[in-house]
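To illustrate the input format used throughout this study, we show a single complete record. The first block contains the structure-token representation of the backbone; no residue identities are included at this stage. The design step must infer an amino acid for every position from geometry alone.
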């Protein structure tokens, strides 16, 4: 058990609930551009590459912040990190909702990415220090399952709300919710006597994590697997399904919701399977291999409605194999450095997405023939097929990295590594 067990269990639960709530909002912002892609292109008169950059700005900042967030939660603690993260995300969401131009929208999206970037690492730190290590993957999976309420809300519900009250109003409301959550975190999270790293030696701890060869396979697995997942579901899925498969925006957004529901269920399922088997590596290899293969199904031709829904569900379910990377990173590094370890591995997820989202758009812009509808560019099926191939190759690279994961048998082995 964690040495933080002297914190009353009710406060452990309150702290974890608040961290998960912040993580829910991060998933909403992550997936939202897919449902309102046409609205954003029409509002700011932007190309696919610019739309990709607007969506990926979230991932740029998120990527840069993962290691600093790991250091901050290991030294300053989760409460202050979540409070300031909530304030920053709230202000960013308000700015995005009020943005008069593409540049202002970019600034708002940047602040959103900065603010929500702390939620996941804070959640991992709370689970690592307050709960039994044998339940780590299961609890992380449960947290992801709950957090995906945000991504589900960013699918069909957001598409409907955007038509009913406008996408700007939605982001103004979400901004207010972020500020309220920051206030609750200020009074609802207890820090003492939580396990914390020594503030005077954090640089040495970070070097220890980064110089540990067993940490890096999870980083590269996430770079390809999570990068492909977030690039597609977080932005390009709805435009692809509407322009290539002829779906309405509501139906296409429903596919994205199904995708995230599959991912959420997979995160909870594979965490339970891994903890029960007492193994990490074979679960990651098997599930991630299926994920890499499923991308190619999109290129096999038109699918019936039940087939496209089933494929989205299966892709989401198998995408969740990469979520075991955080348990693997924690278990090959000291518990006091768990924030830095999980933060480093998490960089791969968002670095991959930040590269692949605009690269997908750039690949499509190369073949664009000049067609425009309601201010948004129209692309051919061949243009989208090139983007899908890009994501399939990225997923394949991520799967290859899982073969280098160090098996921990669901326990901390940092003391056994040379």
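Output of the design step:
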């Amino acid at each position: 058990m964690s040495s933080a067990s002297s914190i009353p269990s009710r406060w452990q639960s309150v702290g974890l609930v608040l961290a998960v709530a912040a993580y829910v909002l991060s998933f909403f912002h992550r997936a939202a551009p897919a449902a309102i892609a046409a609205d954003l292109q029409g509002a700011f008169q932007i190309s696919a590459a610019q739309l990709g950059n607007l969506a990926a700005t979230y991932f740029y900042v998120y990527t840069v912040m993962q290691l600093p967030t790991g250091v901050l939660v290991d030294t300053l603690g989760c409460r202050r990190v979540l409070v300031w993260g909530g304030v920053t995300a709230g202000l960013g969401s308000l700015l995005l909702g009020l943005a008069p131009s593409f540049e202002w929208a970019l600034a708002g999206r940047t602040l959103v990415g900065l603010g929500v970037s702390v939620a996941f690492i804070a959640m991992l730190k709370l689970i690592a220090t307050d709960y039994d290590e044998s339940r780590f993957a299961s609890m992380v999976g449960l947290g992801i399952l709950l957090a995906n309420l945000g991504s589900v809300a960013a699918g069909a519900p957001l598409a409907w709300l955007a038509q009913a009250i406008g996408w700007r109003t939605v982001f103004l409301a979400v901004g207010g919710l972020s500020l309220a959550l920051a206030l609750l975190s200020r009074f609802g999270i207890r820090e003492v006597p939580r396990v914390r790293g020594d503030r005077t030696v954090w640089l040495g701890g970070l070097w220890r994590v980064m110089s540990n060869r067993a940490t890096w396979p999870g980083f590269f697995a996430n770079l390809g697997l999570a990068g492909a997942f977030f690039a597609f579901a977080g932005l390009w899925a709805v435009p692809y399904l509407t322009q290539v498969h002829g779906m309405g925006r509501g139906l296409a957004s429903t596919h994205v919701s199904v995708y995230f529901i599959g991912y959420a269920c997979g995160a909870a399922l594979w965490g339970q399977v891994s903890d029960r088997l007492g193994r990490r590596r074979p679960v990651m290899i098997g599930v991630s291999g299926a994920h890499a293969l499923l991308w190619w199904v999109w290129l096999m031709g038109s699918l019936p409605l039940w087939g496209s829904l089933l494929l989205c569900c299966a892709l989401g379910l198998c995408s969740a194999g990469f979520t075991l990377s955080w348990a693997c990173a924690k278990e090959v590094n000291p518990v006091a450095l768990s924030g830095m370890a999980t933060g480093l591995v998490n960089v791969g997820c968002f670095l991959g997405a930040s590269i692949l989202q605009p690269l997908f758009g750039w690949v499509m812009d190369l073949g664009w023939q000049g067609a425009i509808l309601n201010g948004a560019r129209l692309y051919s099926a061949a243009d989208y097929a090139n983007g899908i191939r890009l994501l399939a190759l990225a997923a394949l690279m991520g799967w290859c990295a899982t073969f280098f994961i160090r098996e921990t048998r669901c326990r901390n082995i940092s003391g056994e590594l040379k």
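Structural context for interpreting the output: The chain is about 75% helix and 0% strand. The chain has one domain: 9-191+198-416.
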